Amino acid sequence: MRYDQLLVRYGELTLKSGNRNTFVNQLKGNVKHALIPLTGYQVHANRDRMYIHLDENIDVEEVIRRVTKVFGVHSVSPVMRVDKELATIQEAAVLVAKDVDEEGRTFKVDVKRSDKNYPMETFELQQVIGGTVLKEVEHLTVNVRQPDHKLTVEIRQDAAYLYSRIEKGAGGLPVGTGGKTLLMLSGGIDSPVAGIEVMKRGVTIEAIHFHSPPFTSEEAKQKVIDLTRIMAETAGEIKLHLVPFTEIQKTIHKVVPENMTMTSTRRMMLKIAERVAGHIDAQAIVNGENLGQVASQTLGSMHAINAVTAMPILRPLLTLDKDEIIIKAKEIGTFDTSIKPFEDCCTIFTPKNPKTNPKLEKIEKFESRFDFEPLLNDAIENIEVLTITKERPEENFSDFL
Ligand code: ATP
Ligand code: MG
């Protein structure tokens, strides 16, 4: 049994007829990226579908596994291409029918005959091929109205094409078609999931991480790099902005009462994130906040923290339960890295009793006792930017400004 090509269906792209070419081209690029470092295939995309022609030696199941994960792919079917001899088509139909999962028991043959000179009519072909499959594949019976499986046979000029298996794709929109955001990435479970959720809607991300050496370890930093690399499998490459946050955090603990340090820490992070977002032309900030999860994520806290910026903040995990987030983290492959025990800057500086409903006026009053501007500027000037790709282990170091 050998499939010659994959038929890739686009799903939601269909709705966006205006930008269709852009979407299709981006999707094609993303599919090729997902297939690195495999060889032995060619990708052809048209307005309605994409075909991936497969050489003999390529692992078809591996190609299916990778392509179905690409955002913008609705579904994938492996296709068999054979000569138009009736006996050959019948033989292929039996093989293709046997390859669908055993749960569904009914099928229907659907013939599309674009070669109008073919000696048999569509209806006749359906009958003959259906009869063969019925005879040769034990568990199947015909149901033309509501079949569990459809076996499609396309009779084209050059050959006959058969497919039946349909593998569900990741859905969503191709990453790179929806603008850019800056993801606030901690080493925890939630923020990488938040990043993937916005990517699913076609958005490109860069990531920003605040660390406080020597209170936070090299391992904690490496963990964030590793998380970014897992996300880069979906995105191609992701820039990671590492912000030195030690001085700011120490200062907050000097000038703000302990129970409000968490709120102030978040506010300073957000102020820096907003400026970085402006610099990289990102139109929104994304975080992994989740309503009510911890003291810093009550509505009251969000209100006091959010007050420092007018930039939209996207919170894709806002209403999910923790166990729902964990399922997603496992699906995207970040969970095992996220639960490694290296502490990030927030964990280390966590106050014993953080305020769950901090008053904005109060926090502003305490912060105004110290001029944080020079510290914020200093942190921004010393940002380290890494470009993380899935296929290249080393990163490019470059200055932010
Ligand atoms: P996560 O698993 O994403 O860390 P969490 O449940 O631990 O989430 P918090 O630690 O309260 O939640 O952080 C809330 C959000 O703030 C995070 O999801 C992330 O977007 C952002 N954040 C927290 N710490 C950092 C950090 N050190 N650098 C960048 N962003 C951070
Ligand atoms: Mg955290």
TrEMBL record:
Source organism: Macrococcus bovicus
Keywords, ordered alphabetically: ATP-binding, Cytoplasm, Nucleotide-binding, RNA-binding, Thiamine biosynthesis, Transferase, tRNA-binding
GO MF terms, alphabetically ordered: ATP binding; CCA tRNA nucleotidyltransferase activity; tRNA binding; tRNA-uracil-4 sulfurtransferase activity
Intracellular or extracellular location(s): Cytoplasm
DNA-binding as UniProt keyword: no
Protein name: Probable tRNA sulfurtransferase
Binding residue positions for ATP: 184-185, 209-210, 266, 288, 297
GO biological process terms, semicolon-separated: thiamine biosynthetic process; thiamine diphosphate biosynthetic process; thiazole biosynthetic process; tRNA 4-thiouridine biosynthesis
SMART domains per record: THUMP
